[in-house]
Write a structure and sequence with these properties.
- This protein is α+β, with helices and mostly antiparallel strands.
- The protein is built from four helices and seven strands.
- The two termini are 24 Å apart.
Length: 144
């Protein structure tokens, strides 16, 4: 069950000014160790420690491969890639400077296989949150 809260768009410059949008309530963030414990409870022959080690190595390897300019696809999860955060453009190719025109890089993840927007839409159930405590976080992504 995905809980949501409604927030009003207060940006007067937006075409959606004054409209209400749903945002998911994040009840908990599971760590890599928590994921390993969860996985070890699903009839696997591997211990929490063994799974934690494998997942830690996987994360380090994904980072290494991304920094080598490669994408990493994990079937039925996501294709991980890096993007570039540009800081405006240069008027000519010769005027382009990394220090002036690039803010940095960003991690991108695109759903793939069984984990697609279509399949999530079919499987997800939504419910308006009646009370949200400070311990729960609301997704900070603004509505376009």
């Amino acid at each position: 069950m995905i809980l949501y809260v409604l927030r009003q768009n207060n940006n007067e410059k937006s075409t959606a000014f004054g409209k209400y949008f749903a945002y998911p309530v994040i009840e908990e963030t599971i760590t890599l160790e928590g994921l390993a414990e969860h996985m070890s409870n699903h009839n696997t022959p591997f211990s929490k420690g063994a799974i934690t080690g494998m997942l830690t190595d996987m994360v380090n390897c994904i980072k290494e491969l991304l920094l080598e300019g490669k994408n990493v696809k994990i079937a039925d999860l996501a294709i991980f890639s890096l993007g570039i955060k540009n800081n405006g453009g240069s008027d000519t190719e010769d005027d382009f400077s990394v220090s002036k025109h690039i803010k940095g890089v960003k991690l991108r993840a695109r759903a793939t296989g069984e984990l697609t927007t279509t399949s999530l839409n079919l499987e997800a159930s939504l419910k308006k949150a009646t009370a949200v405590t400070k311990a729960k976080k609301v997704d900070p992504e603004p509505e376009p």
